């Protein structure tokens, strides 16, 4: 069963501004109801009056969304859903409510181990490849961070999948503005430890690329929402993959180039059945 604990929707409006081109207040109120017949899936419906755009946050960072946003919460837990409404002149209002998911979805459970990187046990699930110094990955409770401008490094882990089943890949990415940088995600059949040179098995699935127009400004949000790298399997932006084998594949995340000072950090890495 699924339970929703609906809290009070608190709207935090900007103060009145004398500039008539800036809204004096923005109502971010929304309703959240389960989608009938779909496990752990909810429809968030925001009021549209005076709202130009919306951002949603389920606890992994805000991302741009629609006024009627479908929210999927595959894992059991308590979530705070936050809506930020943006009005004229950049005025903002926020509202939130809480959802309790009693049971994880058996189909859409996360197959990635240690995707938070928060503990030594989490971190031990990942292996590292240093392609070019000074590129390197470090781990902390905040996530995994790639740093070292001019370098190139990757991290990966093996995951068991089922032939012809569709999976989605995602993660939360944050960092400063980079230049001449690529951040790429692969899901291939070859073990990166056996590959000579840059890993590219299976083709790029998703990522950031400053030449394509993302990663050259501040990065914050789910990669599926802010990335601009095309999925080479389907020729368009998509985080969905499937495989022609039942068995082991390798999720590889690699980054290089003029990485922003402070690095690029990832957390909440996931690969889920659809």
Automatic annotation (TrEMBL):
Q: Where is the signal peptide?
A: none
Provide the organism lineage as a comma list.
Answer: Bacteria, Pseudomonadati, Bacteroidota, Flavobacteriia, Flavobacteriales
Question: Locate the PKD domain: which residues?
Answer: 38-101
Where on the tree of life does the source sit, at the highest rank? Bacteria
Q: What is this protein called?
A: PKD domain-containing protein
């Amino acid at each position: 069963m699924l339970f929703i604990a609906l809290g009070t929707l608190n709207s935090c409006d900007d103060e009145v501004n004398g500039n008539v081109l800036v809204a004096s207040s923005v109502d971010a109120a929304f309703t959240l109801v389960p989608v009938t017949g779909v496990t752990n899936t909810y429809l968030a419906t925001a009021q549209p009056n005076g709202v130009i755009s919306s951002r949603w946050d389920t606890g992994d960072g805000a991302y741009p969304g629609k006024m009627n946003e479908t929210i999927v919460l595959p894992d059991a837990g308590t979530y705070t859903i936050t809506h930020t409404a943006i009005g004229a002149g950049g005025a903002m209002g926020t509202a939130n409510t809480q959802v309790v998911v009693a049971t994880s979805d058996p189909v859409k459970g996360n197959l990635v181990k240690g995707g938070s990187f928060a503990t030594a046990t989490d971190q031990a699930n990942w292996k590292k490849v240093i392609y070019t110094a000074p590129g390197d990955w470090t781990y902390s409770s905040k996530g995994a961070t790639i740093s070292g401008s001019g370098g190139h490094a990757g991290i990966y882990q093996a995951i068991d999948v089922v032939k012809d089943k569709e999976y989605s890949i995602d993660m939360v990415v944050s960092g400063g503005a980079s230049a001449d940088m690529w951040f790429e995600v692969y899901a291939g059949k070859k073990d990166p430890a056996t590959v000579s040179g840059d890993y590219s098995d299976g083709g790029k699935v998703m990522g950031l690329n400053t030449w394509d127009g993302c990663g050259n400004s501040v990065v914050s949000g789910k990669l599926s929402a802010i990335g601009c790298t095309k999925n080479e399997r389907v020729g368009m932006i998509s985080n969905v993959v499937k495989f022609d084998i039942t068995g082991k594949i390798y999720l590889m995340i690699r980054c290089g180039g003029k990485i922003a000072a402070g690095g690029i950090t990832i957390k909440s890495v996931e690969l889920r059945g659809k």
